[in-house]
Structure formats: structure tokens, C-alpha cells
Amino acid sequence: VALYLPPLSTIRSLVISFKNMGVKYMEIKGNQEGELQFCGDLDMANIVVHFSNLSVVSLDNGH
């Protein structure tokens, strides 16, 4: 799946926040409906941030 990402400043803030909370690994999931999730695990909680209505990139040129 290829999606247009949210603004990089938003992603940067998200990554910094996850890091400050102690998240060591982040999972990034996307789907063809234009949804993107950033997931992180802590000892006492699971954190998921959802983005929706993102544009899906068409890869019709053979890629």
C-alpha cells in the first residue's frame, strides 16, 4: 500500500512523544482505505494513533 503521509511535522511530534513515553519499537500499518496507524507498546498500555482519509497513491506505472 502506498499512501500520502500526514505532514512530517506531525509524524515527528508523534515519534518524539512515543520516545518520551518509553516506546522502544513502533509498528506502522496502512491500508487501501487511506488509513494509517502508528502503534507502540508499553508495560502498562498499548498506544495507537490513527490517521484517516489519506490519499492512496496509484502505482499503475508498473511498480
Which features characterize this protein?
single chain; 63 residues; alpha+beta; 3-stranded antiparallel sheet; 1 helix; 3 strands; 27% strand; elongated
Structure write-up:
This protein is an alpha+beta fold and 63 residues long. It has one domain (1-63). 22% of the residues lie in helices and 27% in strands. It contains one helix and three strands; from the N terminus they run αβββ. It has a three-stranded antiparallel beta sheet with strand order 1-2-3, with no helix packed on it.
How does the SSE layout of this entry go?
Layout: H1 8-21, E1 26-30, E2 36-41, E3 46-51
Question: What gap, in angstroms, lies between the N and C termini?
Answer: 11 Å
Largest sheet: 3 strands, antiparallel
The strands making up the biggest β-sheet line up spatially as 1-2-3
What's the overall average pLDDT, rounded? 93
Judging from the principal axes of the Cα atoms, what is the shape? elongated
Strand content: 25-35%
From the alpha carbons, calculate the radius of gyration and give it in angstroms. Answer: 13 Å
Uncertain spans, ≥5 residues at pLDDT below 50?
A: none
SSE series:
HEEE
Please provide the count of β strands.
3
Number of domains: 1
| Helix and strand composition category | alpha+beta
Helix content: 10-25%
What's the total helix number?
1
Quick summary:
By secondary structure, this protein is an alpha+beta fold. It has one helix at 8-21, and strands spanning 26-30, 36-41, 46-51. The protein has one domain.
